[in-house]
TrEMBL record:
SMART domains: AAA, ClpB_D2-small. Residues 53-355 form the AAA+ ATPase domain. The keyword RNA-binding does not apply. This is ATP-dependent protease ATPase subunit HslU. The keyword Transport does not apply. ATP binds at residues 22, 64-69, 277, 344, 416. It comes from Hymenobacter duratus. ATPase subunit of a proteasome-like degradation complex; this subunit has chaperone activity. The binding of ATP and its subsequent hydrolysis by HslU are essential for unfolding of protein substrates subsequently hydrolyzed by HslV. HslU recognizes the N-terminal part of its protein substrates and unfolds these before they are guided to HslV for hydrolysis. It is found in: Cytoplasm. Keywords: ATP-binding, Chaperone, Cytoplasm, Hydrolase, Nucleotide-binding, Protease.
Amino acid sequence: MLDSKTFLTPAQIVAELDKYIIGQHDAKRHVAIALRNRWRRLHAPLDMQREIVPNNILMIGSTGVGKTEIARRLAAIADAPFTKVEASKFTEVGYVGRDVESMVRDLVEQSVNQVKQRRKEEVKNQAAQAVEDLILDALIPPVSGGGLKPTAGFSTTIDSSAMPDSDYELNERTRDKFREKIRSGELDDRKIEIKVQQGAPSMGIVGGAPGMDEASMAGLQDMLGSMLPKKTRKRKVTIAEARKILLDEEAAKLIDMDEVKDEAIRNAENAGIIFIDEIDKVASRSGKGGSGPDVSREGVQRDLLPIVEGSAVSTKYGIINTDHILFIAAGAFHVAKPSDLIPELQGRFPIRVELQSLTKDDFFRILKDPKNALTKQYEALLQAEDVALSFDDAALERLAEIAFEVNSEVENIGARRLHTVMSRLLNDILFDVPDLIGPNARILITRELVDERLKSMIRNPDLSQYIL
Ligand SMILES: Nc1ncnc2c1ncn2[C@@H]1O[C@H](COP(=O)(O)OP(=O)(O)OP(=O)(O)O)[C@@H](O)[C@H]1O
């Protein structure tokens, strides 16, 4: 995507983000520039490409206002590998817990999966052809022998050497007929026996050699795994299921894993986005009179620094350079301030954006407008049961109001509150369909209905604390 000749302009990127995220215009502008800059860098002269450093971003805003969502959607727009980590989960090197390099390994893993998926898509037609042959072999073994065992009801062993020409032709004609039936889906429910590959055998390496890191261990496991013959197992499944299972296996056989690894590493290096949440939780400096936990928090920041500054991290797919990965750090910064981060780290996140707290009106729009709005999700769920659910605007206004009130009275969890409120509102309906509310029913959620179902709870803070 990023290496294609044209790419979305910053305004177009914002327009894409607008489809999913309400408000937060400032943050959208900054991430749009950062993304377009990555494309610009890849089209700059080679010697300059090395010099251009990404403008990492620090997002400041309370929980549930769209920080993660913006970063995730940004990655989706660029089809870029993305990973989210919580800074508070890291521990300083030398202590038990997740080491900071694991986020780079996660990113590469993500990138490998993405490339693999893309390549499989490219060879899908070729793989489908091979799958059709395998299914056919299971139904009617070819005269040349081989193939998979047919199930009861079909001819069994065919001795090709003893077969006269006419029998051979007959077999071919039968196979052609069945090929058509397989294609039309007519035989989808018929059971056949197929050989499926079993998951990688466990090598039983626990702990590894002293001094061996996680990446080398995983690499060793992979290497040993690939040296052993792949185990297969027989399974009896319907033709429809066989198609799915075999398609994945056949597609995997057609792609070159070395190429996949190379491309995945390149993508992670040039397009990867790492989102570090809760950075404020590791932001307090021992220099300010801190002890114990402060020292360790500063340790985590010091460990993060080389990765954000650019260094080589070894992963089971190879060495990856972090120089051009885009880092987006985020935190509420209610207690600690960005200035409590160690200066070197502050310097690595030159772009600061503040996300706004969401208003009642924002809640209303979040319920109604995004492509994946909660109302649209529930409507689609019930559509599957042929029940038409809809919401009138007054109902959505009331829901937004309730979510806003509960946030101010109980705890502010931002737009996440809409999930709990909606689920409370619709639970009975979701349970009653289809037993009590049959197909073709129409349900209109009105303001009165919202009040009726939720009023008792919002009047009682003790209750809403647990339920909403
Ligand atoms: N401005 C917004 N527009 C649309 N949906 C939003 C917005 N803000 C939050 N949401 C929705 O609320 C949920 C939580 O948002 P998100 O994960 O982005 O929170 P966050 O700001 O990253 O919080 P945290 O720091 O706790 O992770 C998501 O389902 C997201 O879609």
